[in-house]
Design a protein that fits this description.
By secondary structure, the chain is of the alpha+beta class. Helices cover 18% and strands 28% of the residues. A hairpin with a 4-residue loop joins strand 9 (153-155) and strand 10 (160-162). The radius of gyration is 16 Å and the shape is globular. The structure holds 2-oxoglutaric acid and fe (ii) ion. It holds the Pfam family 2OG-FeII_Oxy_3.
C-alpha cells in the first residue's frame, strides 16, 4: 500500500502517456498533453490577472535567486478545483495532502536558480513550514505554454533539460525509496530569453494540509 502522501511508479505508469525518465538517481515522470490547450490558456490568463513576487523558504542571501511571480490559485474556483482533482487522480495521492495550487510566471530574464523543493531540515524555519503537514513528498508541475526561448527546467544531477511545452506535465519524488531527502532532485528554472513562461506547481505533503 502506498502512503496517502505518496505516489507510486505503478500508479503513474498506469496512465497512458506517462513515461519514466530512465535514471537510478531519482524518480522522474513525464507526460505530454496532460492539459488541453484551452485549459492551459485559461490557467495562464488567471495567473496573468493576479500575481505577486515569488518568495523562497530557505533564503541564502541571493536576492536574484528566484525572480519570478507567483499566483495563489483560488481553491474554490471550479477550474482550479478540477485541476487539483485531475492531478490527484493522476498521482493517486489523497487530495487532502495537496498544498493549495500555485501558478508561476516568468518574464524575460527571470528564473528560479537551482534548488530542491523540500525544506532543509537544519533551517531555522523548518518547524514553521513543516510542523503541521510535514515535509514535501512529490512535486507535480505543468507547463502552460511553449516558451519562445529559454525557460527550460534543468535537473543538474542527471544532466536533463526539460523544455516547456504547452500541456506537458512532469512529476518527481523529492525523496528516495527509503524516505530520505533526494538531493538529485536539484533543479533550475532557467531564464526565459523570449516571451513569457507560465507553469502550475502542485506540491504534496506527508500529512494532510489541513
Ligand atoms: O518553472 C520551473 O521550470 C520550475 C519551477 C520550480 O522549480 C518551483 O516552482 O519550485
Ligand atoms: Fe522547484
Amino acid at each position: 500500500m502506498t502512503a496517502p502522501g505518496e505516489s507510486s511508479a505503478d500508479t503513474l505508469l498506469s496512465h497512458p502517456g506517462v513515461r519514466r525518465f530512465p535514471s537510478s538517481q531519482l524518480d522522474l515522470f513525464i507526460m505530454r498533453d496532460f492539459l488541453a490547450p484551452v485549459e492551459c490558456d485559461a490557467l495562464a490568463a488567471m495567473i496573468e490577472r493576479q500575481h505577486r513576487p515569488s518568495t523562497i523558504a530557505n533564503y541564502n542571501g541571493d536576492d536574484a535567486f528566484r525572480t519570478s511571480s507567483t499566483c495563489d490559485l483560488a481553491p474554490d474556483d471550479p477550474t482550479v478545483a478540477a485541476l487539483a482533482a485531475k492531478l490527484a487522480a493522476l498521482s493517486g495521492i489523497d487530495i487532502a495532502h495537496a498544498e493549495p495550487l500555485q501558478g508561476q510566471r516568468y518574464e524575460v530574464g527571470q528564473e528560479f536558480k537551482a534548488h530542491t523543493d523540500y525544506f532543509e531540515p537544519d533551517n531555522a524555519d523548518f518547524t514553521k513550514y513543516c510542523s503541521i503537514a510535514g515535509q514535501r513528498t512529490w512535486t507535480f508541475m505543468v507547463y502552460l505554454n511553449s516558451v519562445e526561448a529559454g525557460g527550460a527546467t534543468r535537473f543538474k544531477a542527471i544532466d536533463k533539460l526539460i523544455q516547456p511545452e504547452r500541456g506537458k506535465l512532469i512529476a518527481w519524488n523529492n525523496r528516495r525509496a527509503d524516505g530520505t531527502l533526494n538531493g538529485a532532485t536539484l533543479h533550475h528554472a532557467m531564464k526565459v530569453r523570449k516571451g513569457y513562461k507560465y507553469v502550475i506547481t502542485q506540491w504534496y505533503r506527508e500529512r494532510p494540509w489541513g
